[in-house]
Write a structure and sequence with these properties.
alpha/beta, Rossmann fold
Length: about 260
């Protein structure tokens, strides 16, 4: 799919090369422990295996693997897959662990067409990618590859826009609510009504790291060179001049992670 639910053209397939994938890996945050607790509790029979759809460079995948879950990372971008597989944690997880088989497999695919076997997983995760999906098709594919009683989890790291200065920051970065807590995802008749868990936390980063974070956003990647420069200038002004942040010392950026889970 090239177009998400918002009607915005997904720029990742066309604009993300190795440099962009490396910046994504280095600046995008991981996920709080509470998000994993909610996701792993969703399946009716526990989670021994999972599929992380739209895995990117592995921000959510890594936490699954660290918790001993055998995980298939499905990612359409070759650059993202390449950077994911270069991580030391991923290399270790892809090795045969004392004859028990690898904890991690990385494959090319999409949410709508994973290429995986039917009834093969306890959990399917859409982390930070649901806004790009054809939800009815992706939900049908998730239901196909899930075992009976398995669960689908939609996970979104979002800036805590209820905080006034963060709300303005999100407007400047054009990275506000991707999904909204008051809008329960409609996963269709193949899933139970999703349940919402919210987890608050903070990312520690410097002004320069925040500028780099903004460069990984789809709104930046889809913009013209002139527009990109303007977005970075506005963000630099807001952080350094308006908010008066130290140019070197880290500051705390509040997030809320929204986790919707639904059993097939």
């Amino acid at each position: 799919m090239t177009e998400g639910n918002s009607g915005f053209i997904n720029p990742f397939a066309a604009t993300v090369g190795r440099a962009e994938a490396v910046e994504y890996e280095e600046t995008r945050p991981t996920y709080p422990a509470g998000a994993y607790d909610a996701v792993l509790a969703a399946s009716a029979h526990g989670v021994g295996s999972a599929v992380d759809v739209g895995a990117g460079t592995g921000q959510f995948t890594r936490g699954l693997v660290e918790r001993g879950v055998r995980t298939v990372a499905v990612e359409p971008s070759s650059a993202m897959r390449e950077v994911l597989q270069e991580g030391s944690w991923a290399q270790e997880a892809r090795a045969d662990l004392v004859g028990g088989g690898p904890l991690l497999e990385v494959v090319a695919g999409t949410a709508e067409d994973t290429g995986l076997a039917a009834d093969s997983s306890d959990l399917v995760v859409w982390a930070q990618c649901s806004h790009w999906l054809d939800i009815p098709l992706a939900a049908a594919e998730a239901a196909r590859i899930l075992r009976p009683g398995g669960a689908l989890a939609l996970v979104a790291n979002q800036l805590a826009v209820e905080v006034p200065w963060v709300h303005r920051l999100s407007r400047i970065m054009r990275s506000g609510d991707v999904v909204r807590r008051e809008r329960t995802p409609d996963l269709g008749p193949l899933f139970e009504r999703p349940l919402l868990t919210e987890v608050g936390w903070e990312q520690s980063l410097t002004v320069e790291q925040c500028l780099r974070l903004a460069r990984t956003r789809s709104s930046y990647l889809a913009a013209s060179p002139a527009r990109r420069a303007k977005m970075q200038d506005n963000l630099r002004w807001y952080l350094l001049e308006h908010l008066g942040f130290d140019p070197i010392a880290p500051f705390a950026l509040p997030y809320t992670t929204l986790v919707w889970t639904a059993r097939a």
